[in-house]
């Protein structure tokens, strides 16, 4: 199948072809006709599947097919609203709208926190057809009366599962309350949890349901490997791997922001160019880090899970889990940033005794055992005992046999505590006063907070 078979208008096909794409991905082949048909859609698709083009292309088609010039003296209304959980994803989705809509009389803009509101207000005054936004800043504009959503015809909720993980459910409900009841709604999520199903029931009207790329599937093009190592030697081992293998463009994951910062400081002292990206970084710093990493100027980008949503680089060769995620599904998300579009990639995890339980959950989820390889000179102490992992205000026991339950949702969690030892951990954003640590201070509420293939434009 080619894009020509999907019924898109010629200007869209021209833009897609100029970008070098001829064959739609599975999610695009299913979602584009569904959206063009006009009904609501519940789509299951995860990072790297090309889902952004799956909804931006048909939305642009529908908009241009019914576009009429605004009457003299009136501005064009917002006709399509795309809601995303993070600033990076919002920016990339809006970039996709501009790239695919380059030959269409369609205006778009991106709106998120962490930057001034006045330029956004001016853009809204000039008129916008497609608005891509994060929830907090969108509601800020609505409360100040600078935003009119009364004529929205198309509403897309992207990465709905991450929206819920980040605590945006109340903001989503508030957004739904100010949107017109009659509209075409599309919900994209990597998982169909009970919470997602409940949200879909409220948002969607007799939706078509499509699902591709199982959440627990890892691409065959990704070579996965575990390097057992003591917790206090992880930084040294990571530096050794980067320098001895002459790695470039390495995306490294930590659980928390301060851990990312400390790792960057260590790498830079060892002569490795590195920057961190997380919720406490200014938008300009995040944009610069992403730009330099994508161009190859920056050797290592250290990211937290939430901040990494939206990082998509074609043929990214190496992903390193400096710390295993306490949520098994996040492992799939992390390593899915390499091995895309048929390219080969490598996913390396540095695992200490504290994380053996997390590793067991991951292997159970992906239904395979990940090969272990001890690096000479970095052999772990066979007598080391697991220590608790600090996760915000909670303490996790991730050692093998020390947890009650599995499946990746951090079973066996100890009561909330204060302080912590090894500084590891990431709050998964589900409730409690410690929820959403990644978004604090990032300029979007709850304090919320390109590319060469259609697959990677997807995030």
List the helices and strands and how they pair.
Elements (H helix, E strand, L loop, with lengths): L9 H9 L7 H12 L3 E4 L6 H15 L14 E4 L3 H14 L7 E4 L6 H9 L3 E4 L1 H9 L10 E4 L2 H6 L3 H10 L5 E6 L4 H10 L4 E4 L10 E7 L5 H11 L5 E4 L3 H13 L4 E4 L5 H13 L4 E4 L1 H4 L9 E4 L6 H8 L9 E7 L4 H11 L22 E3 L2 E3 L57 H4 L2
Parallel strand pairs: 1-6, 1-7, 2-4, 2-5, 3-4, 5-6, 8-13, 9-11, 9-12, 10-11, 12-13
Antiparallel strand pairs: 14-15
Q: Can you tag this structure with a few keywords?
A:
459 residues, alpha/beta, Rossmann fold, seven-stranded parallel beta sheet, 34% helix, disordered C terminus
Could you explain the architecture of this structure?
By secondary structure, this protein is α/β, with parallel strands linked by helices. The protein folds into 2 domains: 3-215, 3-Layer(aba) Sandwich (Rossmann fold); 222-424, Rossmann fold (3-Layer(aba) Sandwich), CATH 3.40.50. It has 16 helices and 15 strands. Strands 3-4-2-5-6-1-7 form a 7-stranded parallel β-sheet, sandwiched between helices. α5 (118-126) links the parallel β3 (108-111) and β4. α2 runs parallel beside α3, α6 (135-143) packs across α8 and α14 crosses α15 (356-366). The chain starts with 9 loop residues before the first helix and ends with a helix. Mean pLDDT is 81; it is low at 402-459.
């Amino acid at each position: 199948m080619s894009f020509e078979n999907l019924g898109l208008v010629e200007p869209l096909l021209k833009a897609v072809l100029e970008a070098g794409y001829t064959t739609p991905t599975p999610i695009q082949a299913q979602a584009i006709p569904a959206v063009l048909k006009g009904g609501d859609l519940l789509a299951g698709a995860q990072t790297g599947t090309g889902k952004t083009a799956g909804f931006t292309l048909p939305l642009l088609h529908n908009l241009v097919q019914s576009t009429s010039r605004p009457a003299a003296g009136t501005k064009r209304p917002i006709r399509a609203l795309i809601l995303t959980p993070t600033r990076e994803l919002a920016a990339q989705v809006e970039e996709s709208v501009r790239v695919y809509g380059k030959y269409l009389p369609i205006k778009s803009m991106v709106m998120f926190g962490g930057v001034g509101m006045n330029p956004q207000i001016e853009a809204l005054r000039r008129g916008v057809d497609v608005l891509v936004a994060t929830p907090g800043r969108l509601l800020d504009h609505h409360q100040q009366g600078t935003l009119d959503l009364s004529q929205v015809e198309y509403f897309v909720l992207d990465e709905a599962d991450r929206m819920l993980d980040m605590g945006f459910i109340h903001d989503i409900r508030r957004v739904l309350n100010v949107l017109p009841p009659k509209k075409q709604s599309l919900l994209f999520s990597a998982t169909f949890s009970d919470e997602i199903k409940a949200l879909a029931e409220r948002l969607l009207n007799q939706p078509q349901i499509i699902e591709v790329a199982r959440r627990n599937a890892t691409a065959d093009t990704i070579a996965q490997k575990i390097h057992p190592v003591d917790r206090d030697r992880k930084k040294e081992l990571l530096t050794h791997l980067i320098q001895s293998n002459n790695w470039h463009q390495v995306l490294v994951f930590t659980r928390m922001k301060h851990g990312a910062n400390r790792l960057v400081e260590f790498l830079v002292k060892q002569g490795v160019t590195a920057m961190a990206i997380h919720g406490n970084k200014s938008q300009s710093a995040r944009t610069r880090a992403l730009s330099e990493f994508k161009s190859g100027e920056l050797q290592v980008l250290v990211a937290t899970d939430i901040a990494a949503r939206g990082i998509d680089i074609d043929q990214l060769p190496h992903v390193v889990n400096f710390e295993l995620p306490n949520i098994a599904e996040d492992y799939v998300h992390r390593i899915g940033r390499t091995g895309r579009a048929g390219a080969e990639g490598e996913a390396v995890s540095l695992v200490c005794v504290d994380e053996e339980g997390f590793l067991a959950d991951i292997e159970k989820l992906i239904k395979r055992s990940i090969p272990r390889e001890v690096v000479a000179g970095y052999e772990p102490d066979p007598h080391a005992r697991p220590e608790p992992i600090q996760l915000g205000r909670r303490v996790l026991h991730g050692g093998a046999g020390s947890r009650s339950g599995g499946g990746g949702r951090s079973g066996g969690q100890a009561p909330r505590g204060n302080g912590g030892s090894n500084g590891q951990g990431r709050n998964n954003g589900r409730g409690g006063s410690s929820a959403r640590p990644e978004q604090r201070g990032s300029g979007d509420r709850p304090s919320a907070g390109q590319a060469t293939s259609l697959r990677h434009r997807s995030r």
